Amino acid sequence: MTKITYEIVKHDGGWAYRVDGVYSETFPSHDLARKAAKRAAAEQEVAGETTGITYEDKDGHWHEELSRGDDRPETDVEG
């Protein structure tokens, strides 16, 4: 199972959460950034429907896969 960590960090004169090097919008306080990260983490764990997905990789190759709706990551919020 995949684990995703939402990290609360200082960013752009305020606070944000960061996942795998990508920043959220900036929040005026640590508390607001943490609440937003907890909300996003909870939504990430919600099961959905099994569906087909198509995506392009970093080398420009297209892939088609079946994405299981119950294959959700474990999430955590740090900071």
Describe the structure.
The protein is an alpha+beta fold. The protein has one domain (3-78). The chain contains one helix and six strands. It has one helix spanning 30-44, and strands spanning 3-11, 14-19, 22-23, 51-56, 62-67, 74-78. The longest helix has 15 residues, at 30-44.
Draw up the topology in text.
Blueprint: E1 3-11, E2 14-19, E3 22-23, H1 30-44, E4 51-56, E5 62-67, E6 74-78
Could you provide a short overview of the structure?
The protein has one helix at 30-44, and strands at residues 3-11, 14-19, 22-23, 51-56, 62-67, 74-78. The chain has 79 residues and is an alpha+beta fold.
Mean of all residue-level pLDDT scores: 94
How is the largest sheet built, in terms of strand order? 3-2-1-6
Total number of domains: 1
Determine the strand fraction and express it as a percent band: 35-45%
Structural class: alpha+beta
Reported for the largest beta sheet, the result is: 4 strands, mixed
The shape, in one word, is: globular
Features of the shown structure:
globular; 4-stranded mixed beta sheet; 1 helix; alpha+beta; 79 residues; two-stranded antiparallel ribbon
